[in-house]
Amino acid sequence: MPTPSIPSNDVDGNWNPDDITSQASSEVIKSILIDVPVAGPEADALAVLRDQFQSEVQAILARLQAVETHLGMSVPPRGGENNLCHDEDTPSALKKTWVQMSHDETIDNDVLTQTSRLEEKSTPVRFEESYLVCSMRFFEVLLNFAMQVAFSGVLLSDSFMGDSFDTKVGSAKTWRTRVAHDDAYLDLGGTSLVSRVCAGDGALILSTQQATLIEEINKFLALGKDDLEPPVFQSVGSVGGTVLKNQKITSISCGRYAMQRSVFAMVFTGVDWGGQLFGFKGDELSARKCWSELGLLVVPAKARASIASVLLVAGILWLARTTSIEELMLNAVALNAILDVDEFLFAGMTPIKVQHAVQSLEPIHVRYSRRRSQCETLVHVSLILTTVLLSYTLLLVPLSETMQTVKNELCGGNRTFVVSYNRETQEIIGLTTRLPAEEGESNLTAIELAVRSHIGNSPETTPGPVPDYITFSVNRRVFGADAERSMLEKARQFPLCMETLVLNEGALLHNDPALQPLVDVLLRTAGLALGREMVSSCQELSDFCDHADAGLLRLVCGETCGCTDPVSNPWYKVEAQGCSTSCLIETNWNGRDIPCVDSEANRSWEMFWDSYPDAVSAFYGQPIQRSALWPDLNRTMHGMLSQGCSYLRVAPFDSPTSAHFCEGLTTLFKPLTTICPVTCDCKVTHRNGCPSSCTGQFDPNQGLA
Q: Region Disordered: which residues (predicted)?
């Protein structure tokens, strides 16, 4: 088929194409010459092309006329149909056909200039594919609507949202009051449960929910383990998870309002889109048909925007109740997936040809004045800022303050104590506990050290046949009895004085295969309880003998601690304080030759009264110096030290304990009869502990009431 050409005149009167090309930049082309075959299939095909070309030219002229009318330009009368001229005189085998356009139908340079200005002032608007598909496919409209309504219902349901964080304030108070300070939950180190929870102890088997909650609050508010409020330069609601949550709400709000903005643009430009989408052209785009088809575009989009608004509110409420940073990130991603479900429907359920057809639609050029553009932007920015500020003020700041309140209820105040209730005496007994040991800290308690030494988790630490500190019971029944046995029962359990019969070199039972290992374990345990590890003799612990908490030491080292000495310091020389029954029998045996005279000049008398405040304070657990009895007690102490045994006749009774000094107190101190036998009337009355020289009779069990 011949190639159409644009002819030009040569010297013979013929057209030269080069001349036409050179003139194209300076003047409008008035005519086009096409070589047409005279006859044959090519001529028929070219005739069809000519008709199509002529139709297109007419359409172009009609559109140019519409542009001129829109711009308010004067439109000259058209000169009728385009001239189709045939040059019959050409000698060529081809007939030359001219498609001529009149001068009135040419596009003026001013028209082109104003048209380009129009395009520069207009803004291309392209809508999301899901709007158009949902308007054409009724099934996808229903599916999209049903899914997002279902998501909205799920998000707004109480079972999904969960309880408000305010309810945790009450549960925190309940836990702190009823569980956190129970002595039943002390660990082996003597640390209260609340101290371990607030310190983030990873070895917890109880109250793990509270520990997780405290960890979330610390991360959310950027608090340290011991902090109950943000630092001075930070305010509540401006740190940690609050800022991150605010960013997520802002991004979601921007996405939803962008959708609203596209719906707004569709309302004003949907007519032109209807023309592209539904095939209307020119006069065929009647007003009634245009608005009916526009409804198919706008109604699904507005329905989607309404559901998206509900999802926005539900999503903000959902994110506002999320307290975990990790869950906040996951929930934000999940919420975006829910909001974009219609896009997934378009990508997954729409035929490929429909997708390509929709994606090939050209954007619409919409004229936006500066005022309209700025006002529209201002409205949308204001809506976004309002949503974010309301969410921050009404949801995030109160949540941060509630979190701070919850942590204060869980970890505020004094955490280093536990309590127990004595059902017999109806007393509430308290115990001051220690703070949790820091990671890597070596100051373990005695029981913790005993456990660690017996674990043997390496060949070097594998325990031998005899434990270092643990006394094992033979069965569970004996284990329970040993765990509840009192010191008085323990002192009466052993039929011998351990130090004099087992520990001392050359003693009767020294190196006994059954008793020696048992006594060695008790000795090391007594030292461990006093802060000294792996002791091997009683002399290493002699400076602790008169301590209130050295009962086990007095039980093992009765001789070193004075349990066998009749004139030793009377404090704690009783069975209830660790002196075994066998050692006290030896005391009476050793005191058979004591003369029946007052011997307050010896060291024991001074030690007794010098130790009086500490011994009584330890016995009652309260400083006796703070008592109203202290002035009288202080005078008694000075009188005893200055006047000796004779002052016992002035003050024979101990005010705090109501005990008679000459009779002693079986739970605290032995009678003073061995020091003051005359003043205590040992010659007249047979009091416990009186020397046999006063009575003339020797009873080795005397004083063991």
A: 1-20
SS3 97: strand
Distances (CA, A) of 479 to 51, 67, 450, 484, 556: 113, 105, 17, 9, 20
**Among residues 620, 584, 564, which one has the least CA distance to residue 701?**
584
493 Cα distance to chain centroid: 54
Mean pLDDT over the full length of the chain: 74
Chain centroid, CA 529 distance in Å: 39
Cα 164 to Cα 175, 403, 564, distances in angstroms:
18, 11, 69
Give CA 483 to chain center in angstroms: 40
Place of tokens 């130090």: 499
| Rounded Cα gap, residues 601 and 676, in angstroms | 10
Pick from 614, 556, 622, 559: which is nearest to 585 by CA?
A: 559
| Structure tokens belonging to residue 335 | 């919420």
Q: Which amino acid, one-letter code, is at 638?
A: H
pLDDT value, residue 402? 87
Burial readout 131-155 (b: 16 or more C-beta within 10 A, e: otherwise): bbbbbbbeebbebbbebbeebbeeb
Q: Which of residues 439 and 471 earns the better pLDDT score? A: 471
Q: Which value, to the nearest 10 degrees, does the dihedral of the CA atoms of residues 396, 400, 402, 406 take? A: 150
Render pLDDT for 653-671 as a digit per residue (tens, 0 to 9).
Answer: 999 999 999 999 999 999 9
Is the CB of residue 106 less than 8 Å from the CB of residue 32? Answer: no
Token pair, residue 562, equals: 């004075």
Residue 73: the pLDDT is 58
- pLDDT given for residue 611 in this prediction: 93
Asked if residue 510 lies in contact with residue 516, where contact means CB atoms within 8 angstroms, the answer is yes
Q: Burial of 250 by CB count in 10 Å (0-12 exposed, 13-18 middle, 19+ buried)?
A: middle
Distance separating alpha carbons of residues 127 and 361, to the nearest angstrom: 10
526-555 in b/e form (b: 16+ CB < 10 A) is bbbbbeeeebeebebbeebbbbeebbbbbb
User: Quick check: 502 pLDDT over 50?
Assistant: yes
Tens digits of per-residue pLDDT, 381-392?
777 777 777 777
CA separation for the pair 310, 143 (Å, rounded)? 17
Question: DSSP label at 660?
Answer: B
Distances (CA, A) of 345 to 29, 350, 470: 52, 7, 70
**Sign of the CA dihedral with 383 first, then 388, 393, and 395 last:** positive
Percent of the chain with pLDDT over 90: 26
Question: What are the residues whose beta carbons fall under 8 Å from the beta carbon of 331, sequence distance 6 or more?
Answer: 318, 319, 322
| Whether pTM exceeds 0.90 | no
d(CA 671, CA 567): 11
Contact in structure between 490 and 522 (CB atoms under 8 Å): no
Angle between helices 41-70 and 109-121 (to 10 degrees): 70
- Least confident stretch, 7-21, 411-425, 541-555: 7-21
CA torsion, points 212, 176, 194, 416, in degrees to nearest 10?
160
